[in-house]
Amino acid sequence: MRKRVDTMQKEGMTNPRQTIWTAIRDLAGEDLAGQFTVTDIVDRTGVHRKTASDYFACLVAAEYLTATADTPPVFVLRKDGGVHAPRVRRDGSAVTQGAGALNMWRSMRGLAQFSYRDIALHSTTPTVSVNEETAKSFCAMLLATGFLRVVQKADPAKARLAIYRLIRNDGPKPPQIQRVKQVFDPNTGKVYQRGAN
């Protein structure tokens, strides 16, 4: 059975891909030639060799890494996308699941105040679509768990939408709405229940 993210974090477990990516960036910066092997990463992180090899294949396909023809291959970090591990599939294509929440969170952090309609508009890109219902639901849950405050109440008679302000901004990772109707903040590891203002 898969564990929820908040449970994994409480137990000290992290995302293996993030662990591998952090080690890749560290090793690339330490070695003058910027070269490393899968074994280097496994030795440094303790992740399973197959997990590391599979993620390396994804990173090569997405052109984050290049590999030599040696046996075993030696890798070089070709494209450093930053602190967060690239979310890529085996064919190198980007994983877009969760991109809508990330875009909505970025929009909330960038706008002084907003309606759910503003969030949908600012969060939609050529590759990610955020509809108004999704934005409305996201805003409602973040309001219920104390991330947002109402600046102006909605007035259906005047066709006026509620205007919100972000008041709990603990970092760049978007809050995760869980099936049990609570919100997990991956920036702090805290879980917020409805009515937690």
Number of domains: 2
Provide the CATH top-level class of the largest domain. Mainly Alpha
Overall morphology: elongated
Number of DSSP E strands: 8
Number of helices: 7
Query: What is the oligomer described by this structure?
Result: single chain
> Which consecutive residue ranges, at least 5 long each, have pLDDT under 50?
1-13
Structural class: alpha+beta
What portion of residues belong to β-strands? 5-15%
Can you tell me the CATH architecture of the largest domain? Orthogonal Bundle
CA-based gyration radius: 20 Å
Average pLDDT, all residues: 88
Key features of this structure:
Arc Repressor Mutant, subunit A, 2 domains, 7 helices, three-stranded antiparallel sheet, 38% helix, 197 residues
Description of the molecule:
- 38% of the residues lie in helices and 13% in strands.
- It has seven helices and eight strands, in the order ααβααββαααβββββ.
- It has helices at residues 5-10, 16-30, 38-45, 49-61, 99-110, 116-123, 132-144; strands spanning 35-36, 65-67, 75-77, 148-152, 163-166, 176-177, 183-185, 190-192.
- A three-stranded antiparallel beta sheet has the order 1-3-2. A three-stranded antiparallel beta sheet has the order 6-7-8, covered by helices on one side. A two-stranded antiparallel sheet has the order 4-5.
- The radius of gyration is 20 Å and the shape is elongated.
- The relative contact order is 0.11.
Q: Secondary-structure map with pairings?
A:
Elements: H1 5-10, H2 16-30, E1 35-36, H3 38-45, H4 49-61, E2 65-67, E3 75-77, H5 99-110, H6 116-123, H7 132-144, E4 148-152, E5 163-166, E6 176-177, E7 183-185, E8 190-192
